[in-house]
Amino acid sequence: MTNLLFALSVAAIAAAGLWLALRRDLVDIVIGLALVGTAANLFLFGAGRVVEARPPLLAAGETAFAHAVANPLPQALVLTAIVIGFALTCFAVALALRLAGGREVDGDALSAAEPPPARDGEPGGLP
């Protein structure tokens, strides 16, 4: 029952993040990307079997574990994904602030900056 609840929670977070990421508001897009990253982290964490287990440490002289141990790989992957997700969120916030900076783009000035077309109708080259 707990695994089903965990899976449904991850699916709900992923769906909310996708819905927000597909909206047109920049803040919603950034929050949506953060939620999708969180859902991916929870999925990876859940793939490592969320159970109580002992740390994977061997006593001196032992060569094998006598009991069930926790798998450190999903924890390391999630920790790395959290750092990458934080960097992606910071970049998305900086990009959103830059895009919403209020500068207007003059279409005529952009058209004047383009090189004239060639005689054969192909795009012109830069001098």
UniProtKB/TrEMBL annotation:
Gene3D superfamilies: 1.10.287.3510. GO terms for cellular component: plasma membrane. It comes from the Bacteria. Keywords: Cell membrane, Membrane, Transmembrane, Transmembrane helix. Belongs to the CPA3 antiporters (TC 2.A.63) subunit C family. Residues 117-127 have a biased composition (Basic and acidic residues). It comes from Crenobacter luteus. The chain crosses the membrane at residues 6-22, 29-48, 76-97. It is found in: Cell membrane. Its main location: membrane. PANTHER family: ANTIPORTER SUBUNIT MNHC2-RELATED. This is Cation:proton antiporter. The keyword Manganese does not apply. It holds the Pfam family Oxidored_q2. It is a multi-pass membrane protein. Residues 107-127 are annotated as: Disordered.
